[in-house]
Write a structure and sequence with these properties.
Layout (H helix, E strand, L loop, with lengths): L1 H18 L21 H22 L8 H8 L17 H9 L5 H4 L13
């Protein structure tokens, strides 16, 4: 009995990634401000990492600023406030970006340099 249960559990575990689709399962991040994101929501879920890196390269290599995938814009609309009404930082599991990344074990170094809080309330600049 316990052996069969063990095998069943193993099979269920092995089947998980396939059952969840080809992509990492998505948790429920807090909704952003405003009507819509800077691009289609489904597109944002899949390609925000690529777009952010593309935007970064455009700024650093070509000096193009103010694009729609600016990192500061993300934090302005997606700030999550704690009990003290202040925006939480990236090390907080409720932080918009962290709410998914922690779940999906995605590691980014962006916030080593960039503020993870909205510009007006950020303690440090970019
Ligand atoms: C070592 C520090 C550092 C790290 C790490 C870093 N950046 Fe930057 N980033 C900068 C600097 C400096 C600029 C130039 C700022 C400017 O001139 O406006 C910049 C510019 C940008 C820009 C263009 C400005 C804007 O917001 O539109 C984007 C987008 C960006 N970075 C995204 C990222 C992302 C995404 C990551 C993580 C994958 C990342 N950066 C990691 C330092 C860093
Ligand atoms: C003008 C405000 C605004 C800006 C700027 C913005 N977003 Fe959004 N974002 C939203 C809203 C509103 C939604 C929810 C849309 C919906 O439910 O259809 C959203 C949804 C998302 C989602 C999907 C979340 C989910 O529930 O699965 C991701 C990922 C995302 N945004 C990332 C970003 C990133 C990265 C940036 C910066 C490049 C950014 N957003 C900039 C308002 C914004
Ligand atoms: C809906 C869940 C979700 C949200 C919200 C989210 N991310 Fe992500 N992010 C992911 C997943 C999953 C990956 C890895 C797979 C991929 O690239 O799509 C990722 C990848 C990335 C990457 C690329 C990492 C690499 O090494 O290539 C960057 C940069 C990034 N996210 C930045 C952000 C920022 C900044 C925010 C908040 C403004 C954010 N993400 C919000 C789920 C999310």
């Amino acid at each position: 009995m316990s052996f069969r249960l063990g095998v069943w559990l193993l099979l269920a575990l092995l089947a998980l990634p396939a059952a969840a689709g080809e992509r990492v399962p998505v948790p429920q991040p807090q909704r952003g401000q405003g009507e819509a994101c800077v691009a289609d929501t489904e597109y944002m879920r899949r390609f925000h990492g690529d777009e952010l890196k593309r935007q970064r390269d455009q700024t650093l290599r070509l000096g193009i600023r103010g694009g729609k995938f600016a990192l500061s814009g993300c934090l302005d609309c997606h700030a999550v406030r704690g009990a003290d009404a202040k925006p939480v930082d990236y090390d907080d599991p409720r932080h918009f970006c962290q709410s998914c990344h922690g779940f999906a074990a995605v590691r980014i170094d962006c916030f080593d340099c960039h503020s993870a809080k909205p510009e007006q309330t950020a303690g440090r600049s970019k």
